[in-house]
Design goal:
The chain has about 210 residues and is of the alpha/beta class. About 60% of the residues lie in helices and about 15% in strands. The protein is built from seven helices and five strands, in the order H-H-H-E-E-E-H-E-E-H-H-H. The chain is elongated, with a radius of gyration of 24 Å.
Length: about 210
């Protein structure tokens, strides 16, 4: 089989998630291509080997970056349940299927020598990073605050106030992204919001200590 068949099989299975048996039927029905199930699997291995240098290049770019957004989601393969990990940087995006969602898999995603900042959710695996290299996803924080603000309780007022400040951060960032303000102005405005948030948190802690 030639390179076009290899590329077609890799595309249909890897990108469009067509199973090997369905892929076998499709190749026979549309392209009248007589091919066995074993050959389909073998050609996927050929494609994986051909893509290995590009995979290594993307992995190196991620490892050398100063900031990465990381996440993971479930990814089924038959009866097995691996996880699809992703690292998004300014120059490259790496997808990696791994059997687990712990710190070892995080290290496999970012590379052994990665020393940059990581933005993520609260998955325990990310706790393996030092606090100075960890940034929680702001959208997750907003979602958590919204849930607390909608719940009835003595923390509802503080949560609503924090939520308003958090949403203001997103609005300021949108203005910066669209060119409405420069970075210095952005930092000054966010610093003021940060201070206001600390005051609300400290106020809530003091109230908690009075009960």
């Amino acid at each position: 089989f030639g390179p076009r068949v290899v590329a077609l099989i890799a595309l249909l299975h890897g990108r469009f998630r067509i199973s090997n048996r369905e892929l076998l039927s499709l190749l026979s029905m549309i392209w009248l291509l007589p091919i066995s199930l074993g050959s389909v699997v073998h050609l996927q291995e050929v494609a994986a080997e051909a893509l290995a240098p590009a995979q290594a290049e993307v992995q190196q770019a991620v490892e050398q970056s100063d900031h990465a957004n990381a996440d993971e989601t479930s990814w089924r393969e038959g009866k097995r349940k691996p996880w699809l990990w992703v690292a998004v940087t300014a120059v490259a995006t790496l997808f990696l299927i791994q059997y687990g969602r712990g710190k070892d898999q995080l290290r496999g995603l970012l590379g052994e020598r990665y020393a940059g900042l990581v933005t993520s959710d609260r998955l325990r695996a990310y706790n393996s990073l030092s606090p100075g290299r960890r940034q929680l996803c702001w959208a997750h924080l907003v979602r958590n605050l919204r849930g607390r603000a909608e719940a009835v309780g003595r923390w509802q007022g503080e949560a609503q106030a924090l939520l308003a400040l958090a949403e203001e951060v997103l609005a300021i960032w949108g203005c910066f992204r669209d060119g409405g303000i420069d970075r210095v102005t952005l930092q000054g405005m966010v610093l003021a919001i940060q201070q206001a948030m600390w005051e609300l948190v400290e106020q809530g802690q003091q109230q908690q200590n009075t009960f």
